[in-house]
Structure formats: structure tokens, C-alpha cells
Automatic annotation (TrEMBL):
Localisation per UniProt entry: Membrane
Organism, as annotated: Chenopodium quinoa
Keyword line: Electron transport, Membrane, Signal, Transport
Region (Disordered): 184-215
Domain DOMON, chain residue ranges per copy: 47-159
InterPro entries linked: AIR12_DOMON, DOMON_domain
Signal peptide region: 1-23
Keyword Glycoprotein part of the UniProt annotation: no
Protein name: DOMON domain-containing protein
Gene Ontology CC terms: membrane
Length: 234
């Protein structure tokens, strides 16, 4: 009996270390190959995405490095700002994908879901670049934010490519909830809150702390199982 319990516990412990939510990259573990450093970093609440960023109030500029894994090797990742409202419609986005020889970055104005084309956006953006490491793509860029704004509506997404252009992303909950109201200054930075939270939902105005989520719940579950096993053996 005790040997069977030991085997079950061993398998559970093994699953802990191979489970993707336990081993996923976080702000603390991600190493950018670029020499650029950032003041803040958020583990975004969906799509296992990460945002490094620095806001310079004197220049009203927001420098970012957005990291995510495309759903397929030649897929795309994107991050942007919506100047009018939370959500994707109307967002101004940087999109990167890996080509044959390099990772390219383009700008997209998402005014119309049915006619998504790359082209100029309403924000002044500079220092655009991208890199790919171990299947993850990081997009770099500096945005000029209208003076006086202390929060911005950020959005992000991942999706496939089709015939050399971006194709529609999935519509799973993780995709639909890929938005965050980012606080740039004051006590809230480096915080944020989910943009477009349903009325009546509670939020403290801060982004999910790094390292919280499914991985920690998995650890707690395995430790609880271990305690049960020990009590049964003893």
C-alpha cells in the first residue's frame, strides 16, 4: 500500500516540474538579448506574455519590449495602445513575425476588424526592432504619449500568418481578455488593471504580481498531496 502511494506522489512531483505553467518564462527569468534595460516589468494576465517598459515623463515617451510566443513558428505577436477606449477596435499596434532571415516589425491601425492592413498609426513611434529567442518574439519600440496622460489602454495578441500577412487570431478567453489599463506614473506604476473589467468586479488597480497564477496553484496542490501521503504512510 505504502509503495503505491509513494509511486503516486513521485509521479505528481514529476508532473510539477514538467508542467508548462510551472516552467513558463516570467519577468524575473526572461533575459532580453538587447542591451536595453527597463525600469518596470509586468507578467501580463493572458497569453503568457511579458511587458518590459519605461516611461519618461519629461519626454512623454513610453519605451517597451513586449514578449510572447506565436501560436506557430511563423506566426505573429503584437502589442499596442488604444487611444480611445479599452479593447482591440481602434488600437494602434506593433506587429512582429519571423521571416526567412529576420524578424520584421510593422505598424497596424485596427480601425476596422474586416480590413486590417499595415500602415501608419496615430502615435509617433520610433526605435522599432524585434528579436526571436527560443520560440519567443520580443518587439521593441518607443511611443510618444500625449502629455498629461497618466494611464494608457494597452492591448496584445498572438496569431498565425497567411499568405505573408497577419491572419485572425483565436477567440479564446485568453485572447479576448488580452488588454490592460497601464498606469504610467505615481503609486500605480508599474501597476495596471484589466481594461474593460465588468462593472461590479473588484480590482485594486494593480497588475497581477509576477509569479502568481496557475504555477503556484499547481505547487500548492502537489504539496497538499504530499502532506496527505505522509500522513497515510506514518
Amino acid at each position: 500500500m505504502s509503495s503505491s502511494i509513494y509511486i503516486i506522489f513521485s509521479l505528481s512531483l514529476f508532473s510539477l516540474f514538467i508542467h508548462p505553467t510551472f516552467s513558463q518564462t516570467t519577468c524575473k527569468s526572461l533575459k532580453l538579448s538587447s542591451n536595453v534595460t527597463f525600469e518596470n516589468c509586468n507578467d501580463l494576465p493572458t497569453l503568457d506574455a511579458i511587458l518590459h517598459w519605461t516611461y519618461n515623463p519629461s519626454k512623454s515617451s513610453l519605451s517597451v519590449a513586449f514578449t510572447a510566443s506565436p501560436p506557430q513558428p511563423d506566426g505573429w505577436v503584437g502589442w499596442g495602445l488604444n487611444p480611445t477606449a479599452p479593447g482591440m477596435k481602434g488600437a494602434q499596434v506593433l506587429v512582429a513575425h519571423k521571416g526567412k532571415d529576420s524578424v520584421t516589425v510593422d505598424t497596424y491601425d485596427l480601425r476596422d476588424y474586416h480590413d486590417i492592413k499595415k500602415g501608419p498609426i496615430s502615435y509617433n513611434v520610433s526605435s522599432l526592432s524585434a528579436e526571436e529567442t527560443s520560440g519567443k518574439i520580443t518587439v521593441f519600440g518607443t511611443w510618444v504619449i500625449p502629455k498629461g496622460e497618466s494611464t494608457v489602454n494597452s492591448v496584445w495578441q498572438v496569431g498565425p500568418m497567411m499568405k505573408g500577412d497577419i491572419a485572425k487570431h483565436a477567440m479564446e478567453p485568453a485572447n479576448r481578455n488580452a488588454m490592460l489599463k497601464l498606469s504610467l506614473t505615481g503609486a500605480g506604476a508599474p501597476g495596471g488593471s484589466p481594461a474593460g473589467s465588468p462593472s461590479g468586479s473588484s480590482t485594486d488597480g494593480s497588475a497581477p504580481p509576477p509569479g502568481t497564477g496557475a504555477g503556484e496553484r499547481l505547487v500548492s496542490g502537489v504539496l497538499a498531496l504530499g502532506a496527505i501521503v505522509v500522513s497515510m504512510v506514518v
